[in-house]
């Protein structure tokens, strides 16, 4: 089929994320991808400034990841994980245990970040059931958060300003503390944690766990808040006999400047969710890690097992590539790489603060954000970025970049320049 036919069939039959049918937003067919560039079917080349929704930290078609996939495919691409195991899953689990905080000792694999959150929430509920406290089945979270699009995950997303408010009538009602207001780098104010503490005091006997994204609230607004909030929240959860789940799906594997954002607070959660960059964007894979204290209650509980089991759990191809991706990350000085990206983003995005349409500019690690006063018109703005030779996907009032770590300075300048150029037109 020619390009026009491809686009026409896509618009008639393919339902894209956060779109309607027929899809009113423009789509840009991709023919190939390599390094940080997407090659479109019409011949144009775009610098990917958001790492395919924050996943491709080492870009596309990386030879080490390709080699890992090819080697694994020669053995097996998939086998069920119920009653069977295999080297890629075991090796990846060991790697995750080695690089995450020491108390995390057990790994449950799943297919996506949303499912990793579902697993974490189910683990917390079943943990308390195992301990004879089934009334502890609600969750405490903070406003402006985002944890995924499945039902339990949606229930912990911001209930007013989040994208899931249409489902509020059927979602489990959770407890929402006010979002942290003390920004990363500012002086800590103890009053920032008062709303969180108040809910623990009043509702702690019903709360299974607190769940939030440490330091960086991602799709809920790309906000950077004080690490002391995370430390104090961890402390309060222990005091009130509530588990702590940290959602590191977007922040994990170096994106914030630390390997995991909880390191800024020097704490370890009871349960941690990882995904997105885990496989370097090569395949869909996520994981939920927990402590021995939690996992050991399951064999003695009513069910005798944890009641969850995704069909493609522990997919060997995904595990093999993910292990290669994490080994690749360890093979170079990623901390300096991310710090250099952060410095360039700060330097090149800061002038946007003077633009009429811009409310705020903020940077942390390999994350750069230009916040506008008004929401963007996606149908109009996204083609403007394509015309500038970059791929960015703004949402709400945010134009942001989370580039691959392998991006070169001149390529990153093209991304920040496009942001400034488009922001000037708004």
From TrEMBL:
Work out whether the entry's keyword set contains Cytoplasm.
yes
Annotated protein name in UniProt: Adenosylmethionine-8-amino-7-oxononanoate aminotransferase
Q: What class of enzyme is it?
A: transferase
Q: Which family is this sequence assigned to?
A: Belongs to the class-III pyridoxal-phosphate-dependent aminotransferase family. BioA subfamily.
Task: Specify whether S-adenosyl-L-methionine is a keyword of the entry.
Answer: yes
Q: How does it assemble?
A: Homodimer.
Cite the PANTHER family for this sequence. ADENOSYLMETHIONINE-8-AMINO-7-OXONONANOATE AMINOTRANSFERASE (PTHR42684)
Task: Copy the pathway line from the protein's UniProt record.
Answer: Cofactor biosynthesis; biotin biosynthesis; 7,8-diaminononanoate from 8-amino-7-oxononanoate (SAM route): step 1/1
The main place the protein resides is: cytoplasm
Supply the CDD domains for this chain.
Answer: OAT_like
Which is one Gene Ontology cellular component term of this protein? Answer: cytoplasm
Write down the required cofactor(s). Answer: pyridoxal 5'-phosphate
Q: What are the GO BP annotations of this UniProt entry? A: biotin biosynthetic process
Q: Which reaction does it catalyse?
A: (8S)-8-amino-7-oxononanoate + S-adenosyl-L-methionine = S-adenosyl-4-methylsulfanyl-2-oxobutanoate + (7R,8S)-7,8-diammoniononanoate
Residues with the N6-(pyridoxal phosphate)lysine modification: 276
Source organism's superkingdom? Bacteria
Record-annotated site: Participates in the substrate recognition with KAPA and in a stacking interaction with the adenine ring of SAM = 18
Q: Which HAMAP family match?
A: BioA (MF_00834)
Task: Report a single Gene Ontology molecular function.
Answer: pyridoxal phosphate binding
Which gene is transcribed and translated to give this protein? bioA
In which organism is this protein found?
A: Leptolyngbya foveolarum
The record ties this protein, via InterPro entries, to: Aminotrans_3, Aminotrans_3_PPA_site, BioA, PyrdxlP-dep_Trfase, PyrdxlP-dep_Trfase_major, PyrdxlP-dep_Trfase_small
């Amino acid at each position: 089929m020619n390009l026009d036919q491809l686009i026409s069939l896509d618009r008639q039959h393919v339902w894209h994320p956060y779109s309607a049918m027929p899809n009113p937003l423009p789509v840009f067919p991709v023919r190939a991808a390599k390094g940080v560039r997407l090659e479109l079917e019409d011949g144009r080349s775009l610098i990917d400034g958001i790492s395919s929704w924050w996943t491709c930290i080492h870009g596309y078609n990386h030879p080490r990841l390709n080699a890992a996939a090819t080697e694994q495919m020669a053995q097996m691409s998939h086998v069920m994980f119920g009653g069977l195991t295999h080297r890629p899953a075991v090796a990846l689990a060991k790697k995750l245990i080695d690089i995450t905080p020491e108390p995390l000792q057990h790994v449950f694999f799943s297919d996506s970040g949303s499912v990793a959150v579902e697993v974490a929430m189910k683990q917390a509920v079943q943990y308390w059931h195992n301990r004879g406290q089934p009334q502890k089945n609600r969750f405490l979270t903070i406003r402006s958060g985002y944890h995924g699009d499945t039902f339990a995950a949606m229930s912990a997303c911001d209930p007013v300003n989040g994208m899931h408010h249409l489902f509020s009538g059927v979602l489990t009602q959770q407890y929402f503390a006010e979002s942290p207001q003390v920004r990363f780098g500012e002086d800590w104010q103890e009053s920032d944690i008062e709303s969180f503490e108040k809910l623990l005091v009043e509702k702690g006997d019903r709360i299974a766990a607190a769940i939030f994204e440490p330091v960086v609230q991602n799709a809920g607004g790309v906000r950077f808040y004080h690490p002391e909030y995370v430390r104090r929240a961890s402390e309060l959860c222990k005091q009130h006999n509530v588990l702590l789940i940290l959602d590191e799906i977007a922040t994990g594997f170096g994106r914030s400047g630390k390997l995991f954002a909880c390191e800024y607070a020097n704490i370890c959660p009871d349960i941690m969710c990882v995904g997105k960059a885990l496989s370097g964007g090569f395949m869909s894979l996520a994981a939920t890690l927990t402590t021995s204290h939690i996992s050991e209650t399951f064999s003695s509980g009513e069910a005798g097992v944890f009641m969850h089991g995704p069909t493609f759990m522990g997919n060997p191809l995904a595990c093999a590539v993910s292990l290669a991706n994490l080994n690749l990350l360890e093979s170079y000085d990623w901390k300096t790489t991310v710090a250099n990206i952060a410095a360039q983003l700060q330097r090149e995005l800061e002038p946007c603060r003077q633009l009429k349409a811009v409310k705020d500019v903020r940077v942390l690690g390999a994350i750069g954000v230009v916040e506008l006063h008004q929401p963007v018109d996606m149908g109009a703005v996204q083609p403007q970025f394509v015309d500038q030779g970059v791929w960015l996907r703004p949402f709400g009032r945010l134009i942001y970049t989370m580039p691959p770590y392998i991006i070169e300075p001149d390529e990153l300048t093209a991304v920040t320049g496009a942001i400034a150029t488009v922001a000037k037109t708004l």
